[in-house]
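Notes from the 1:1 (GR / supervisor)

We went over the backlog. Supervisor wanted to see one worked example end to end before approving the batch request, so GR pasted a single chain during the call. The sequence is below; no edits were made to it. Supervisor asked that the structure be written out right there so they could see what the output format looks like.
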Amino acid sequence: MSRSHRLFQVMQLLRQGGGPHTAAKLAQDLGISARSVHRDIATLREMGAIIDGEAGYGFTLIEDNALPPMGFRDTELEALVLGLREVQQIGDPELADAAAEALRKLQARLPNRQAHRLRHAVLSAYRFQRPQPPGIALADLRRATWDEVEVRLDYCDAKGAVTQRQVKPLGLVYFDRSTVLIAWCGLRDDVRVFRVDRIAGFEATDVSFRPHRVPMLRDALAQMRADRAACAPQTDVEPDAPEG
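Structure output shown during the call:
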């Protein structure tokens, strides 16, 4: 096995997650010595990979985007193309432009054969009915969600009634007919779903709820699945948490 191929194999094992990966286990999987694993980890770090861990503990890949592309399987490439083209169909303008730019960057960094395969991919995505366009800047709402700060909403429900809410934004979900914000609503003291096309006004606050977004979203999704299972069968694709 060549050194470059071995480095590729080490990266592939680290990318699989489930770490930390011990040097002994990596050595066993690759059929090399633990000392060689430590040398390869040091080389990968010099190349730009951010790998957490040390001898006796194990290694976890944190980030490897500074490395040159190590290649995709053809099916992985098709999946990326399909996903990015779907984002171009359902995303807000900024997100759709980002997906198009990601496709261009991906094509520029692929070997010639795979660049051709991407350019003439057999898979595509098209929505005859796109989600209703939002009246707010979704980029700002995404940023507030990542920043884990509460936001104030002017929300218009299905009957046209407008209420003011202060919510903890947990995540955005793109459905066939609408895009929704899953959030913890201070007014209802519970998880609620807000259609983004019904949000008439939006303002980020300086009230942080970090670092609780991830576990709160996980619990909210679990509760939605449990509610759906309890009420099955259902035909509606929208989440079961009450709207607004």
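Supervisor's comment: Residues 22 and 218 are 29 Å apart (CA to CA).
Batch request approved.
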